[in-house]
Write a structure and sequence with these properties.
The chain is an alpha+beta fold and 208 residues long. It contains nine helices and five strands; from the N terminus they run E-H-H-E-E-H-E-H-H-H-E-H-H-H. It starts with 5 loop residues before the first strand and ends in a 10-residue tail after the last helix.
């Protein structure tokens, strides 16, 4: 993976098991997303999983979009440093797996392999991938209330920042800057979602 390029990252629980079972675990995953994204990370993954202060060091990656669902997650990331995505994902998956396994008194792999990455090699692909990730839970149809509570995405960062508790996507302007307003992006994303549903076979590469 090359510096300055953008990638769609996906991983899911081993055997499709849930990796998030409550809001506390989602909060811990967010903590890991923020803490481990630094070129000057000090200490082991285990030690860093308890760090509460956010580092201001130079990031390895920049988030463009994300979606966390009970048994998998999607990121759109720009690689800032050499091997930045690989370093960040190794820390993130390792640190969160240690926390989850200790909490649930389990051992072994939590995730289905390291992670999967798809190079986003065109602007058109980027725009549609942003809609796909931001609205990933919606493209799967209606979900139950309990499942819906365990879904977090960058959708509000894009279209409703007043209802966003905090922002992770430092690079979302690469998408939003191509629209006159957030409302225009919202309309594009929702219409793109309908196309994704209608042409599901064409988007299977995003799920492989």
């Amino acid at each position: 993976m090359a510096r300055g390029e953008i990638y769609h990252i996906l991983n899911r629980g081993v055997d499709k098991r849930n990796i998030f079972t409550n809001q506390e675990e989602i909060g811990r995953f967010f903590e890991c997303m923020l803490t481990f994204n630094s070129i000057e990370l000090a200490g082991s993954l285990y030690e860093q999983s308890f760090v509460k202060e956010k580092t201001k060091n130079k990031p390895l990656v920049k988030f463009i979009a994300y979606c966390l669902l009970p048994n998998h997650f999607h990121f759109i990331l720009e690689q800032i440093e050499k091997d930045g995505i690989s370093k960040f994902m190794k820390r993130l998956l390792g640190g969160y797996s240690w926390y989850f396994n200790k909490k649930h008194k389990r051992s072994g792999s939590l995730f289905q392999g390291p992670f999967k990455a798809k190079h986003i090699d065109s602007n058109k692909y980027l725009l549609h991938a942003s809609a796909y990730v931001n609205l990933n839970d919606k493209q799967k149809g209606e979900l139950g209330d309990q499942v819906a509570k365990l879904i977090k995405s960058s959708w509000n960062e894009y279209v409703d920042p007043k209802n966003c508790l905090f922002e992770i996507c430092a690079q979302k302007e690469i998408v939003l800057g191509q629209f006159h307003s957030r409302e225009e992006y919202k309309k594009f994303a929702l219409s793109s979602l309908e196309n994704i549903k209608a042409n599901k076979e064409k988007y299977k590469e995003l799920e492989k």
